[in-house]
Amino acid sequence: MILKQFQIGPYQNFTYVVAAAEGGEAFVIDPSFGIEPVLEYIDAHRLQVRFILNTHSHPDHVAGNGDVKARTGARVAAYQSARLGQDVSLEDGSELSAAGTSVRVVHTPGHTPDSVLYVFSGNVATGDTLFVGECGRTDLPGGSPGDLYDSLFGKVLKLDDGLVVLPGHDYGRTPTSTIGYERMSNYVLQPRTKEEFIRFMQA
Predict the structure, then answer these.
(1) 98-to-46, 123, 144 alpha-carbon distances in Å
(2) CATH classification of the domain holding 87
(3) Using CB atoms within 10 A of its CB, is residue 180 exposed (0-12), middle (13-18) or buried (19+)?
(4) What is the pLDDT of residues 84-107, one digit of tens each?
(5) Cβ-count burial of 172 within 10 angstroms (0-12 exposed, 13-18 middle, 19+ buried)?
(6) What does the pLDDT look like over 105-114, one tens digit per residue?
(7) Do 141 and 101 touch, CB atoms closer than 8 A?
(8) Are strands 25-29 and 101-107 parallel, antiparallel or unpaired?
(9) Is the Cβ–Cβ distance between 62 and 31 less than 8 Å?
(10) From the CA atom positions of the chain, what is the Rg in Å?
(11) Overall domain count for the chain
């Protein structure tokens, strides 16, 4: 499997290209602004992009959808409540078969109501739900610290410790991490009651 991480756009976004092999089927996660290097990579490696997977609908995570779709004919997939005109509407627990692997959807509202994780082949693309050493903000429209608490402590921390965390932004000390390392080191994930977490996020 090929897994390529690109830092593009003005907000240190990460866009990911996942492929079965050179010249094989692929999918793209969160095409951001400044998508041209990603398109060049797709062309150079003759990848057949089948899906564009959006972790949520903020503009910096979907800005490149149209360009990738126009170049490759890929179908846009996002959570069912996202207002993206997506081709595939996903639910919690949905599975997609793409690039020779199975991709499982985990709905993680909090940063936005339509936030999801994508779990595949020992990796988890966390969007803005979980960063390396941090989590997404909840003070934007649709954000909810209570929902984020449920997502982080009820879903993210129940994932396998060995999963490689593929965050939506390059905000941490390293570009990737693992669930196990974040469990031990991420100050956001230290034990708190829901009420304590809400106060923590609002502080």
Answers:
(1) 16, 14, 31
(2) 3.60.15.10
(3) middle
(4) 999 999 999 999 999 999 999 999
(5) middle
(6) 999 999 999 9
(7) no
(8) unpaired
(9) yes
(10) 16
(11) 1
